[in-house]
């Protein structure tokens, strides 16, 4: 019989498989973290587009991911990623947003039980908000519960298949568990979305010889 850890990894990788590949992104348009202030409008992201018709949040996020994929430097990519994360951080519910803010404060203060309790309430209130699941995955990981953290990462990726932060977290957990091959898969999928993500590039470089050499 498969262990709980293996079953969890299979479930999470099923969600990870839903993340778009670079080839798919090039073949067709993309489908319509974290805490931050209210995101600027499209015209603030690109002043030249100020007179263009207003677009909805999904269209804005799509455009940001397109820009993230072709960013020419880590600094440029980080600025775009910050805008993406500010959009991810908005649930559309003032109550959920307030609970999230309190949960993040509790995590910073290492009050992890309180953070998880608050994030339980966030998810109950808005189960479709990917960032609620992602932040609870973070809290569970910090609390030492990697199995439940992986399950929440899977739920995050079901709702936002492009969540490179969740992919990075998955890779970190798998690497800690000694599953370098699957960790490399998760890291490389994150880089397909965010090619300039330095922490993941470094992780891939450190695993490349061992994993690719072993499979060669």
Notable features of this structure?
12 helices; mainly alpha; 216 residues
Task: Kindly describe this structure.
- With about 220 residues, the chain is mostly helical.
- About 15% of the residues have low confidence.
- The longest helix has 18 residues.
- Helices cover about 70% and strands about 0% of the residues.
- It is globular.
- Helix 6 packs antiparallel against helix 7 and helix 9 runs antiparallel to helix 10.
Estimated structural class: mainly alpha
Shape: globular
Count of individual beta strands: 0
Helix content: over 70%
Termini separation comes to 29 Å
Low-confidence stretches: 21-54
Radius of gyration: 18 Å
Major β-sheet, in short?
none
Strand content: under 5%
The string of secondary-structure elements, in order, is HHHHHHHHHHHH
Report mean pLDDT, rounded to a whole number.
82
Supply the number of helical segments.
Answer: 12
Provide a concise account of the structure shown.
By secondary structure, this protein is an all-alpha fold. Helices cover 70% and strands 0% of the residues. The longest helix is centred in the C-terminal third of the chain and has 18 residues, at 198-215.
